[in-house]
Amino acid sequence: MKEIIETHVLINKSAKAIWNILSDFKSYPSWSPTIRFFEGVPVVGKRRQVSLQQPGGTAIKMNPIFLKIDLNEELRWKGRLGLNGIFDGEHYFILKAISDQQTLLIQGEIFTGILVPFLKKMIHGNTLAGFEAFNQAIKERAEAVL
């Protein structure tokens, strides 16, 4: 089974400015309503502990493997609940420059596994709300920086 959610937010800053916020992992606790902690610095092919808090949901710790870290363009990781194939999520942030001072941030996740049909309400509820809250927070942070 597979389920995809995707959100978009237009930010009045360059892709580089947004990347600087997105890749400053140690600062997330000061502004992100959903990603509360990153362990160390992510490296492609390595796992790092990440703490998440979705609106109305419980906090969870996961150890995703980082799949892609492309400067000013894309950050992607994959986490799982238990064993592969039970409930996996490939999370991504993509930055698309609209102009020198305007960027579309795309945040999404591809959920796969046997539990997906049973967790659709959570995916389209708290998880989607968490993505929207994160998007608004990064937009406010980016546009507040001079």
TrEMBL record:
This is SRPBCC domain-containing protein. InterPro entries: Polyketide_cyclase/dehydratase (IPR019587), START-like_dom_sf (IPR023393). Pfam families: Polyketide_cyc2 (PF10604). Signal peptide: none annotated. It comes from Sphingobacterium zhuxiongii. It comes from the Bacteria.
